[in-house]
Amino acid sequence: MILTPASEEEAADLVREARGARRRLELRGGGTRSGLGRPVEAEAVLSSSALVGITLHEPAELVIAARAGTPVREVEAALDAHGQRLPVEPMDHRALYSTAGEPTVGGLVAANASGPRRVQAGAIRDHLIGVRLVNGRGEAIKSGGRVMKNVTGLDLVKLSCGAHGTLGFLTEVTFKVLPKPEAAATLAWSGLDDARAVAALTKAMASPFDVSGAAHIPLGPGREEASTLLRLEGHAETVRGRTERLATLLAEFGRPKRLADEGSPWPALRDGGIVAADAEAAVWRISVAPTQGPELVARLRPLLRDHAYDWGGGLVWAATAPDGDAGAADIRAALGGLGGHATLLRAPVALRRHIEVFEPLTPALRALTVGIKASFDPDGILNPGRMYAGI
Predict the structure, then answer these.
(1) Minimal CA–CA distance to 316: which of 341, 337, 279, 336?
(2) Mean pLDDT of 240-255
(3) C-alpha distance from residue 51 to each of 62, 109, 198 (Å)
(4) What is the pTM of this model?
(5) 76 pLDDT higher than 50
(6) If you ran DSSP here, which 8-state letter would residue 359 be given?
(7) Maximum distance among all Cα pairs of the chain, rounded to whole angstroms
(8) What is the pLDDT of residue 263?
(9) How many CB atoms lie within 10 A of CB 39?
(10) Which of the two ends of the chain, N or C, has the fewest CB atoms closer than 10 A to its terminal CB?
(11) Which of 290, 259, 285, 289 is nearest to 272 (CA)?
């Protein structure tokens, strides 16, 4: 059964009805992220597909709001018409999961699905300034507004971002946006090993040249040479000067070439496609201190079918065999001495049902998570078990 409310009031009515019937609901936007997280055991789907449309766009104030089911591409097109954009590069999961449909702004917020520009612009939650949602009691809640401001107490805007629909059914989201840069340039160094590449990325990120993308793609399936990538964006003249000075700063790593926009590797890095050529492989996103990325990979080398680095080395994309636990025990053991966390982004349903998909919670964090879930959704009817079993 798929429920498609056309208004926030109708969504609240449906949630109250489901709560009364103890009917668990799987929350869904465009359906493009269906393989993300643990499988939800639900009796019905609550879809935002009818909650569409941009409700506010004030270009002079750099603010846009849209109903949760609005396709991301529509918001991006509206912004582009005014020379603006979402500050981060929203990840598109369709390549990973072989799904159809359209990524929605509600799904984008629910997953906090940030891309390579996070090293410069921050995450989705850093630019989310307002949400409307229906909690598990069937209550409509508004948090935030049209301006960035300091918050005391519980910040529901930030809390709902990355909650994967476990706290409420998003009906509308509001973003602070930024002007679209006039030009972009990507410099690529060839043949660096992982350690040297991350050293180059680290030096670039510490420079004053405002790098907006920093990644390393090692040798791997279908790749004949390693590529270390740095992107700069802004006014055309400043981009030209900064790329020249950055190349000089990194002269010890060789002479880079400038890549054309066509065939740019950034979309594949953004969406995980860079390590997903093997459709059967499990795919992990592992966050770690950038300088420790190569050490982590060295520890995991026997497990890895492919890997790549983003966020200056702080994000390790890793592909492993899907059998057993897909390397979960070894990955989490390796992280134990380095810090960081790992998310199993793609794996068979049976595997995602029986192992921790997100970083396991300490007893204290689990108690806090259970308490927050209970305050929003006391009967556990919204995306039950999506992030953690029993929550």
Answers:
(1) 341
(2) 97
(3) 23, 15, 43
(4) 0.93
(5) yes
(6) P
(7) 67
(8) 65
(9) 15
(10) N
(11) 285
- 242 touches 186 (CB < 8 A): no
pLDDT confidence of residue 144: 83
pLDDT at residue 133 tops 80: yes
- Cβ neighbour number for residue 52 with a 10 Å cutoff: 16
Q: Are 130 and 79 in contact (CB under 8 A)?
A: no
Write out the DSSP string of 257-318: EEEPSTT-SHHHHHHTGGG-SSTTSEEEEEE--GGGHHHHHHHHGGGEEEEEEEGGGTEEEE
The 10 Å Cβ neighbour count of residue 292 is: 18
User: Is 272:285 a contact under the CB 8 Å cutoff?
Assistant: yes
Residue owning tokens 């699905």: 113
The DSSP secondary-structure symbol of 142 reads: E
- In three-state secondary structure terms, 135 is coil
Residue 260 CB neighbour total at 10 angstroms: 9
The pLDDT of residue 262 is 64
What is the rounded average pLDDT of the residues 285-291? Answer: 95
> Could you tell me if 226 and 308 are in contact, meaning their C-beta atoms sit under 8 angstroms apart?
no
In terms of DSSP bridges, do strands 304-310 and 257-259 run parallel, antiparallel, or are they unpaired?
unpaired
For residues 104 and 52, what is the distance between their CA atoms, to the nearest angstrom?
9
Is the Cβ–Cβ distance between 314 and 341 less than 8 Å? no
- Tokens representing residue 75 in the block: 């918001």
Q: 10 Å Cβ neighbour count for 224? A: 7
Tell me, what's the pLDDT at 148?
52
Length of the chain (residues): 391
Check if the beta carbon of residue 293 is closer than 8 Å to that of residue 198: yes
pLDDT given for residue 337 in this prediction:
81
Q: In the structure encoding, which two tokens stand for residue 136, read together?
A: 């598990």
